[in-house]
Amino acid sequence: MCGIVGAVALRNVTPILLEGLHRLEYRGYDSAGLALLNRQGGLQRVRAMGKVAELEKALATSPAKGHLGIAHTRWATHGKPAEHNAHPHLSERLAVVHNGIIENHASLRRKLTELGYSFNSDTDTEVIAHLLAHHYQHKQDLLSAFRATLNELHGAYALGVIHQDEPDNLYCARMGSPLVIGVGSEEQFIASDPLALLQVTDQFIYLEEGDHARLTLAGHEVWSSNNQVLSYPVKRYEHAAHSLDKGEYRHFMLKEIFEQPKAIADTLEGKLADNQVLTAILGPEAENRLADIQNIHIVACGTSYHAGLVARYWIEEQAGIACQVEVASEYRYRTVSVPANTLLVTISQSGETADTLAALRYAKKQNYLGTLAICNVAGSSLVREAGWRLLTQAGPEIGVASTKAFTTQLVALLWLTTALAQAKQRAPEIINANVRALRNLPGLVEQVLQLEPGIEQLAQSFAGKHHALFLGRGPHYPVAMEGALKLKEISYIHAEAYAAGELKHGPLALVDEDMPVVSVAPSDSLLEKLKSNLEEVRARGGQLINFACERAGLETSEGVTHIELPWVYDSVSPIVYTLPLQLLSYHVALVKGTDVDKPRNLAKSVTVE
Ligand code: G6P
């Protein structure tokens, strides 16, 4: 999705802005641009379609330097991807970059057109530039004009603004889209994601909804939506130690797949004792209320939603708590019935997904016992707004296709299930077994990742395929859903997942030799049922690929390939069986020659609805 970087410094900020944009590339975008102010040359703007590298090429022909600047990567919402729609947008002597969507842009555009402003783009953002220029003409004071502009905007925004008349000031604001201030020594920055600024600072101020700010070399002033002066603590970025390059790996996705043993170990750190889980990490209020929870509603999007679907099986079986799981974009717009003592759980890698955040805000107005965010980013909006938090420690995830964030979410959810079982005094064997399985998990994951060469070979058989089916049962059905999502995200093969028992209710009609069928076949209580479903596929000439437990006893025959996994304890099995599916989609994408880390049309962090 769109990204913002801005800087005010004594030095030329062009390299800082470009490096920031590079660091935001993983989020997905279609064009990039920047605007710079210097005391000699005035306001300069350079924009380019495509990658940040294209912007760099454009800058090589028309160099732009300045001590104050704003930059942007755009992911089209209003107006097709095109240079004239790329940010920054100008009006008179000012420039604006914007993330989010201005919902009343059409009426503002009409009003500004009547006032004589002409539009050079199809974006909603350009109305902000003209509206600000209009208010500035009347007020002759940029801060007041900025405030008057913000008061007229409906929708979501993170904004960066510079104006030739105030060459020492960088203005910004946030409402519904993330924005941080980066604090340097005699230099200040803004960005939509702290990652963009880690080359210049690890000190951040996280703006809250409705805040606006003015940055100068000397520091920053922050105000609330009703213009009250605010003083926020400066926080050190927690993932600063993580490496943000690919190292020896060809893609971030592969690096992140192989980081899973460490990410899982980090997520479990300080949370396990000998025969129990340590719940103090949730904070005293949450810890004291665990035993009261009678229902759980889980709300999330994309891969995080799949993590919730797996957790439902665990929570209902092991903690005896009723659990429902829903995508946030549906949940937020319906009337939800909330039984007494229900916990709302949101799951998000980024903590900035617009629908998940809106779902949390909606839930906070309902009668929930508490709201818990399971999230990978400590300073994110979701974490700050939820009542309770449980952080995963996956480190920054750059590949658009989520891998280590998913498995660490599952680890956090299995830990939560165990904490609930413990609080409800369920059978101690469940708790002991989960603690043991979690403790051994990083080693097991390491072992399963060694299956890569066999999976790489197998990926060749997908070369000419356009469709694939994924089958699973029980908690491995959502694992199959996640496998199908990974394959379609990065290899563009149409893939669907079915609960294996549903096969004969429709999808079996699709099965022939051109339809690879991938099954997730651990050695659990549903294995015999699954075997019958696989026979149904074989009988119709379908090519079967089984990721199966070495003890499953599946027979090898023509058209059937097995990749064998070690026997694992039931609870952690969905986590372990996710790994070969990640590797399969990665290697199929290599065979297909797609852009693995930045698949077309997708964004890492979906900060608009
Ligand atoms: C986007 C990403 C997915 C992710 C989903 C939810 O669609 O491409 O990988 O699962 O958003 O993101 P979140 O950050 O809330 O987990």
From TrEMBL:
It catalyses: D-fructose 6-phosphate + L-glutamine = D-glucosamine 6-phosphate + L-glutamate. Residues 286-426, 458-599 form the SIS domain. The keyword Transcription regulation does not apply. GO terms for cellular component: cytosol. One of its GO terms (biological process) is protein N-linked glycosylation. Residues 2-218 form the Glutamine amidotransferase type-2 domain. One of its GO terms (molecular function) is carbohydrate derivative binding. It is found in: Cytoplasm. Keywords: Aminotransferase, Cytoplasm, Glutamine amidotransferase, Repeat, Transferase. It is an enzyme of class 2 (transferase). Its EC number is 2.6.1.16. PROSITE patterns: GATASE_TYPE_2, SIS. The active site is at 2 (nucleophile), 604 (for fru-6p isomerization activity). InterPro entries: GATase_2_dom (IPR017932), GFAT (IPR005855), GFAT_N (IPR047084), GlmS/AgaS_SIS (IPR035466), GlmS/FrlB_SIS (IPR035490), Ntn_hydrolases_N (IPR029055), SIS_dom (IPR001347), SIS_dom_sf (IPR046348). Gene3D superfamilies: Glucose-6-phosphate isomerase like protein, domain 1, Glutamine Phosphoribosylpyrophosphate, subunit 1, domain 1. HAMAP family: GlmS. PANTHER family: GLUCOSAMINE--FRUCTOSE-6-PHOSPHATE AMINOTRANSFERASE, ISOMERIZING, GLUTAMINE--FRUCTOSE-6-PHOSPHATE TRANSAMINASE (ISOMERIZING). Catalyzes the first step in hexosamine metabolism, converting fructose-6P into glucosamine-6P using glutamine as a nitrogen source. Homodimer. This is Glutamine--fructose-6-phosphate aminotransferase [isomerizing]. It comes from Pseudomonas jilinensis.
